[in-house]
Design a protein that fits this description.
The chain is α/β, with parallel strands linked by helices. It folds into 2 domains: 18-342, Aminopeptidase (3-Layer(aba) Sandwich), CATH 3.40.630.10; 345-435, Immunoglobulin-like, CATH 2.60.40.1120. It has 13 helices and 16 strands. The strands form 3 sheets. It has an 8-stranded mixed β-sheet with strand order 1-2-4-3-5-8-6-7, sandwiched between helices. Strands 9, 12, 15 and 16 form a 4-stranded mixed β-sheet that branches. Helix 3 packs across helix 12 and helix 8 (244-255) packs antiparallel against helix 12 (323-339). The chain is globular and about 65 Å long. The chain binds zinc ion.
């Protein structure tokens, strides 16, 4: 008996020794080991899963934190952080690994905030979207020429330019007054080819009902929000999305909790002027520099997920001795941003007669805080497979209306008052089946016609470019 006890104590000591997180540069093997150890420490609230492979066959491994690992729970919002999309930008990668270790330790230590967050949110962390690029950058980190080395994947493609360009389709519809604002992939003729890393991540984005996300980069210190592509080609102009005020608040929820991002207490990364800290540490993507085919706008225009882009340090590949400070600077911001999955409203949409859930119902918000100036937010979200939906929104009064094929449309007035640590207010709808849906058919016809013209125009442009 005594010897069993003795060996258990020894095992515990060795586990503690091997699970202490180290602030070092974790290559793929070391990073996978960190995740394995976190899972071993917290098997009941974590799961590791692989969403695909890089060009050179490295795994794209996600660690999930949830009270029901592997399962979407009805009404529970899904959140993700994606780091190291540019292989030579490594701060986000190390922060995500440390965050995984921290969440597990805090949960085990019964920290009330961490417990509440994990009990109410399903969190997915992808520490590297571009492991091949990372390995190149890692090998050449001491070369002076390494500012861009490892940015692209092994095929030399910038992954943050390789997603379907839905901004162009959005603007095309907008110019023609076509009433189609979201889930645009349904109307998109593919502009591939897409890299394996992009295909894997896009599939993941499309198959999980994410409500909120951030995509981590380095090279500057700012939280960047949609749209990323300018409305006018070749110009860096502010590109307002229908959720501009919400996105600004989401970006501020990160920047203002970061130790420096929103403060005028640091040297600007470009050594010229720090316009970002004068703007609260945030910027509209297109106003900074216009990007087509980025992941951020793909999330917003193809799915219900709101994504922002975080630039976490001037230095892309800092010395390992600076990583602990990076964690301390970002810790509160990382946690606060995850909590934003709970702003606005959420609910369940069901059939009034049968009680069955209704997937793909369309939920619209009109901001009626100022009753004289109602503002329709032209970005509907849709209900997931279980009839549940999440609609991020700031404090205010809203008219929430719901449309579903085969049902009478319905609406309700709601006052949103977000409180940190609380779940989103629940607003359920029971829909009455209807017989015909003439208006919707007409609207679909208009959209279909416009989509055909867009495809023909795109083909024409392609032929012109080929000449
Ligand atoms: Zn980047």
């Amino acid at each position: 008996m005594a010897s069993v006890l003795y060996s258990m104590i020894l095992l515990c000591i060795s586990l503690v020794a091997c699970t202490a997180f180290e602030y070092i540069h974790h290559d793929t093997e070391a990073a996978e080991k960190v995740l394995d150890e976190v899972h071993r420490k917290c098997p009941d609230i974590t799961r590791l899963y692989v969403i695909g492979e890089s060009v050179e066959g490295r795994p794209l491994t996600v660690i999930e934190f949830s009270t029901t690992p592997g399962k979407h729970e009805l009404l529970k919002p899904e959140f993700k952080y994606v780091a190291n999309m540019h292989g030579n930008e490594i701060v986000g990668r190390e922060l995500v690994l440390k965050l995984a270790d921290y969440l597990c330790d805090q949960y085990k230590a019964k920290d009330p905030d961490t417990r509440l967050l994990i009990n109410t949110t399903r969190i997915h962390l992808l520490y590297s979207m571009n492991p091949d690029g990372y390995e190149r950058a890692y090998t050449h980190q001491n070369d002076d020429k390494s500012w861009l080395l490892g940015r692209a994947n092994a095929n030399g493609v910038d992954l943050n330019r390789n997603f379907p360009d839905l901004d162009s389709l959005y603007y095309y519809f907008e110019r023609r007054g076509v009433p189609r604002y979201s889930h645009l992939l349904d109307f998109f003729s593919d502009d591939g080819p897409h890299e394996p890393e992009v295909r894997s991540v896009a599939r993941w984005i499309l198959s999980t009902p994410f409500a909120l996300s951030a995509n981590m980069h380095e090279g500057d210190l700012v939280a960047n929000y949609p749209f990323d592509a300018s409305r006018i080609d070749g110009e860096n102009q502010y590109a307002r999305s229908p959720d501009d005020v919400t996105f600004r608040a989401l970006a501020l929820s990160y920047s203002t909790k970061h130790a420096h991002m929103a403060k005028d207490d640091h040297k600007p990364c470009d050594n010229v002027e720090d316009k970002f800290s004068r703007q609260g540490g945030i910027t509209n993507g297109a106003r900074w520099y216009s990007v087509k085919g980025g992941m951020q706008d793909f999330n917003y225009l193809a799915t219900n997920c709101f994504e922002i882009t975080l630039e976490l340090s001037c230095t892309k590949f800092p010395n390992a001795s600076l990583l602990e400070q990076a964690w301390n600077d970002n810790k509160e911001a990382l946690l606060n941003f995850m909590w934003q999955s709970h702003i606005g409203i959420k609910g369940l949409i069901t059939d009034k007669l049968t009680g069955e859930p209704i997937p793909d119902a369309v939920i619209w918000l009109t901001n009626v805080t100022d009753p004289k100036r109602p503002i329709l937010i032209t970005h509907p979200v849709t209900s997931a497979a279980g009839g549940d939906y999440w609609r991020l929104a700031l404090d205010g009064k809203y008219n929430v209306s719901v449309d579903a094929y085969g049902y009478e449309p319905t609406s309700r007035l709601v006052t949103v008052h977000n409180v940190h640590g609380n779940e989103a207010q629940r607003v359920d709808f029971q829909l009455q089946p209807s017989i015909a849906d003439e208006a919707e058919n007409e609207e679909n016809e208009t959209v279909n016609e416009a989509q055909e013209t867009y495809a023909a125009d795109a083909l024409e442009r392609e032929l012109e470019n080929a000449q």
